[in-house]
Amino acid sequence: MKWHSRDAMPRGVTVAALAALIVLGNRPSKGDEAGLYSDAQALRGQALFDEHCPACHGAQLQGSAAVALSGDTFRAHWADGQHTVDDLFFVMRTQMPFTEPGKLRRQQYIDIAAYVLKVNGYPAGAVELPAVGAELKKMTLHPR
To answer: Whole-model pTM?
Structure first.
């Protein structure tokens, strides 16, 4: 069926367009998709992880002497919609490395957290993950 802009849109097209708007309206906001950390930050975090963490958490974050920081174990403990990035950051900076808790600077811990988030499928963006608890408390970890 042909129609012109001055004619009424066919009923089927109107219903389909309305359905598409409803579906698109229920997608996460642009802010939710923008990413939690930058790629550069996750790269720094990977270098720090490789230097300080693999003896306990495994080279691939799969766990060894300590709990895994990736996959099902990470999702079950952290990505449950009840924890924030601040919760993860707090545990890291107060309990890691196991033999010397608090050894690293805040920025180093947050960079490692960015790497852990990257490994677990959280998106990168243009802005770095801040090393400030107030902002981190607003970032809830949902399953990926």
So the answer is: 0.76
Q: Which long-range contacts (CB under 8 A, 24 or more apart) does 22-30 make?
A: none
pLDDT in tens, 116-131: 999 999 999 999 999 8
User: What's the Cα-to-Cα distance from 2 to each of 7, 11, 16, 42, 65, rounded to whole Å?
Assistant: 10, 13, 17, 53, 69
Give yes or no for a contact between 72 and 104, defined as CB atoms under 8 angstroms apart: no
Percent of the chain with pLDDT over 90: 63
CATH 1.10.760.10 for domain 36-136, yes or no, is yes
- Tell me the torsion sign for CA atoms 49, 51, 53, 54: positive
